[in-house]
Amino acid sequence: MHSGIDEVTFSIDGARPESYIQYRQRGKFDVSMRNLRAMADEKRKSGRDLPFLNWRYILFKWNDSDEEMEEARRMAVDIGVDRLCWEITDHPEDSFSRRFVPGSPGYERIRRETWDDSNLGNAIPGATPRARIDVKPRVPLPGLSRLPLVAKAGKPATIRTRVHNLSARAFPIDTTYGRRTVRLGAQLCDEHGTLLNLDFARAHLPRALEGGTAADIDIELPPLETPGRYSLKFDLVSEGIDWFERCGSPTTLKPLVVR
User: Fold this and answer.
1) What pTM value is reported for the model?
2) Which residues pair with 16 in a beta bridge?
3) What is the CATH number of the domain that holds 33?
């Protein structure tokens, strides 16, 4: 806990002892849960933002009921886990979950909550980050928001946005270790939306943006030397982890004309 380790993952495959021992036959459910709770309690008492605590839950045919998965969600909230994710497997052949086979309706329902889908998806209600980004015209006149953004060749440009936190958790802005700090990003694309520069521009959030709130953010674009038509994709990024789009958050695409 005090070594500064970045992340700890507990593999606990069930919310009940009788489920856990089906696969972890030499493990003890109560011991695993006690260790997870103790680490979460110590992290909370120390006021640290590390380690990031993952609970990874492999889905089998004996632990994949809606009731037990909902029980795991409640336990994760009660303990104070940072992230709960489902793990999809195809083995053992007689044991893997048939409800959540990739491509099935059941899988699509939980896909954003699975371990391999992204580095941000979370089965804890409201914990998967989602945002809406509105690009605001310089002058608030009717119809201007539908026009392309305009920049002068060789000159920086500032774009006004309003960012809405659509999830339940705050977007952090000052983690002690740099990773998981949330920033607004503008990705440079050609006029058809093909990516040219993933890290074209960044802007800091003015504060830790609480769930259900919004903030006005200006983002400065570096100069583009070549006139032409481009587009900008606006998204939030959890630095060192993933872009919000990867876990299903909507992005905003705006045409850009450089003259």
Assistant:
1) 0.94
2) none
3) 3.30.750
